[in-house]
UniProtKB/TrEMBL annotation:
Transmembrane segments: none annotated. This is Adaptor-related protein complex 5, zeta 1 subunit. Coiled coil: none annotated. One of its GO terms (cellular component) is AP-5 adaptor complex. Residues 273-390 form the AP-5 complex subunit zeta-1 ARM repeats domain. Residues 1-216 form the AP-5 complex subunit zeta-1 N-terminal TPR domain. Residues 402-748 form the AP-5 complex subunit zeta-1 C-terminal TPR domain.
Length: 752
């Protein structure tokens, strides 16, 4: 939403009257007639843009003002170009002037004029006309080196073709191919017109074209700068059709550019330019090889050499990713060993550059866009999930959407358990990454590092193994560590670090994605193991405010879901489930999980769910739950805790009644307890329930269950109904009268 000040300005702009607006137009025309443009002119242009933006209806400016604004597009001051283009995009051009750009205007095209051109195209016909004009302007240009505006014309054409591919005719393709071939031939001989050095008020440099190589903008900035030699076009190349010639010339040009980038840059600006050129050159070679597979064998020696030269320098990571894309796309065409590439991309990059936001974006995008190809060509990438999660641990809000897409591909039978532990310990990984950076930045003797107990622990050899496990690059060294409680104590002070808190907020989202994926695998042995992990880890979490509650909520949701899909899991893990349900302490500190564990025991511990369920097992479960319910309803809560939630008590009561209905020998014990509970509550307030309304609800539930147990046959039908009752399909069953009755009612209630 807008701030109060911004809303005030927008309201003023909306409320301006037409006479006042016409006066404003006239004043602005006079200001634009002055050669030296003042701050008042800039302020007036900004105000005009706001007025036009805030108005509901698009306005038509006076013709004189329109022409003045168009002239700003070729102003040496970029700020005036920006403002002129912004204003014109908010207006309708005068009648008859739509897209009326002459050859002279097109020759002066720049970024802002190009944006205006595209904004005025209101139909595919307009785009076709614009395309034709731009291509005619290219046709009339000399081949000996493209002019300065070419860098703006070609992107506009690319945008037009993207929006409306049908605008690109075969004649256009032929013409563009021929022109691009000619420009590439001369690209290394003559430098194009000078570009603006940046800033709103900086004009273009007025240098004459000089013989110069692609990367040598300033001969003093690059070591060993020499002029590139244009290779002589072979007679066989001249005989190729235009598209094939362009492909060949682009291939040669990119290889020449890669060779030039072998020179060591002396300034950071030149180094960044080299990296950008290498990225584009590799990407173009990738596209060329995708169109003509025969070029793969010619390109790979260059790619191998480039990878070998750059792989030891991680500052070239942004270049190495396109090289990895090339290997991924064309590695099968040539017998190349890609293992070194994957170890670098999946291993070193995340481990050492996890805090590089640009690399995180590019690498995760590389994984998402090529996921199917990577799974077939480099299936070992799954083992690097501890490394990939470092990006998430470091900057969770920025990459969580990427991991929502990627996480399902990382869940396999072999990685599922370790991945679950890793997700739960993600805040610990965040804290460890912070400590790792601080440890390298702050000397051991630095007084600023004192007071951080976690940093001292990170440097302590006795705890080094705990942190090294979190920082591991690959899976397979164990699902988790034995001393998780110790690790959580060492990182206790990190619980309120902003980066750790933000990471903790993303874990529940990813856990839902994880469990949704695991369920589809339909591996009962794995699911049984995950039930144990949930019970165990419910008490082993980093103590971050509300983190445990959120994780318990996720566990509860998916524990119930897993047991509903596979009721036999309850019998498989009955020992561990009963042990968890029989611990009274879990009532107070794991209420959500405990409630659902009790519910699944009462719901699915029956012969109808699993034939292995015995009377002995039902009795053991009944006795464990009975002991807990008796303890919490006959004593005050432990110090530092609150009264158990009414839902826990009613769930325990319901579970006891369900179990008793399946083993009638238990009915007297259940009825006796429920009657005692009713008697105790009639005496007034009780220590285990602070709210009177909650107590009434508990007693009412107890009376309902007690009444049901008086009729064991009815109790079993109500408390453990058969499947055909809980999931009725009578309206589709052709053997009963229900469908006929429904059709009859439908015909009576709907008019013919």
């Amino acid at each position: 939403m807008y701030s109060h000040g911004s809303e005030s300005l927008i309201n003023q702009a909306r409320e301006i009257q037409e006479p006042e607006l016409q006066k404003f137009y006239s004043r602005l025309v006079k200001l634009l007639q002055v050669k030296e443009l003042s701050h008042e002119t800039l302020d007036s242009l900004q105000r005009l843009q706001l007025i036009l933006f805030a108005n509901k209806f698009t306005k038509i400016l006076p013709a004189e003002l329109q022409q003045k604004l168009l002239s700003l597009l070729s102003s040496p001051a970029e700020q005036l170009q920006v403002l002129g283009s912004a204003v014109l995009r908010e207006t309708l051009p005068p009648s008859g002037q739509e897209l009326n750009f002459s050859e002279e205007n097109l020759s002066q095209l720049n970024t802002h004029a190009a944006a205006l051109l595209l904004s005025q195209a209101r139909s595919r016909a307009d785009l076709s006309n614009l395309c034709a004009q731009l291509i005619r302007s290219l046709e009339s240009r000399p081949s000996e080196g493209p002019t300065q505006s070419l860098m703006f014309t070609l992107p506009v054409l690319n945008t037009v073709f993207t929006l409306s591919p049908e605008c690109l005719t075969e004649d256009h393709v032929t013409l563009l191919s021929k022109k691009l071939v000619d420009w590439l031939r001369y690209a290394s001989i003559v430098q194009g017109g000078g570009a603006s050095s940046g800033g709103f008020f900086t004009g273009p440099r007025s240098r004459q074209p000089l013989p110069i190589a692609e990367l040598d903008d300033d001969r003093s900035e690059v070591e060993g700068s020499v002029v590139s030699v244009v290779s002589v076009t072979s007679s066989s190349s001249r005989l190729l059709p235009p598209k094939e010639r362009l492909r060949e010339k682009a291939f040669q040009y990119c290889q020449r550019l890669i060779e030039q980038c072998d020179r060591r840059a002396q300034k950071k600006a030149d180094s960044e330019l080299q990296k950008a050129c290498l990225v584009e050159a590799v990407c173009i070679l990738d596209c060329v090889c995708a169109e003509d597979a025969s070029m793969v064998y010619r390109a790979f020696p260059c790619m191998k050499a480039l990878f070998g030269r750059l792989s030891s320098d991680l500052s070239f990571a942004r270049v190495l990713l396109p090289i990895a894309q090339f290997y991924l796309n064309h590695g099968e065409m040539d017998t190349v060993d890609c293992e070194r590439v994957w170890k670098l991309v999946f291993g070193q990059f995340p481990a050492e550059l996890f805090n590089d936001a640009f690399l995180a974006y590019e690498l995760l995008r590389f994984l998402r866009l090529n996921l199917e190809n990577i799974q077939s060509r480099a299936p070992e990438f799954v083992q690097f999930f501890p490394n990939f999660l470092k990006f998430l641990a470091w900057d969770s809000p920025a990459v969580v959407e990427d991991f929502v897409d990627l996480l399902p591909s990382l869940v396999t039978t072999g990685t599922a358990v370790e991945l679950l532990h890793t997700l739960l310990d993600l805040p610990c990984l965040t804290a460890t990454l912070v400590l790792q950076l601080r440890s390298t930045c702050l000397p051991i003797a630095d007084p600023n590092s004192r007071g951080l107990l976690s940093l001292e622990a990170f440097r302590n050899p006795a705890f080094r193994g705990l942190f090294l496990f979190l920082l591991r690059a690959q899976a397979g060294s164990g699902d988790t560590i034995d001393r998780l409680g110790t690790l959580h104590e060492l990182l206790a002070e990190a619980a309120d670090w902003p980066r750790v808190v933000r990471c903790a907020q993303t874990v529940p989202v990813l856990l839902h994605v994880y469990f949704n994926t695991v369920v589809k695998m339909d591996d009962r042995k794995l699911l049984a193991h995950l039930v144990l992990v949930m019970l165990e880890r419910s008490s082993l979490l980093l103590r971050i405010p509300s983190y445990s509650k959120e994780i318990h909520r996720v566990f509860s949701c998916h524990l119930r879901r897993l047991c509903k899909l596979h009721p036999s899991l309850v019998v498989d893990q009955s020992h561990e489930l009963l042990e968890f349900a029989g611990a009274t302490a879990n009532v107070y500190n794991k209420e959500e999980v405990y409630t659902h564990v009790v519910w699944v025991l009462g719901e699915y511990l029956s012969v109808s769910s699993d034939s292995r369920c015995s009377v002995k097992l039902i009795t053991s479960c009944f006795e464990a739950l009975e002991a807990v319910l008796f303890e919490i309803t006959s004593s005050t809560p432990p110090p530092g805790t609150i009264c158990p939630a009414p839902r826990v008590i009613t769930t325990l009561m319901s579970a006891l009644a369900k179990l008793a209905s399946r083993s009638h020998d238990l009915i007297p014990r259940a009825s006796l307890f429920l009657s005692k509970l009713r008697t105790v509550s009639r005496n007034g307030s009780v220590a285990w329930c602070a709210d009177e309304e909650d107590l009434v609800a508990i007693v009412t539930r107890g009376e309902e269950l007690w009444s049901l147990l008086k009729a064991p046959g009815v109790a079993q039908s109500v408390l453990t109904p058969p499947a055909y009752v809980t999931t009725p399909r009578w309206h589709r069953d052709t053997s009963v009268a229900m469908p006929l009755q429904l059709r009859a009612l439908t015909s009576l209630t709907h008019s013919q």
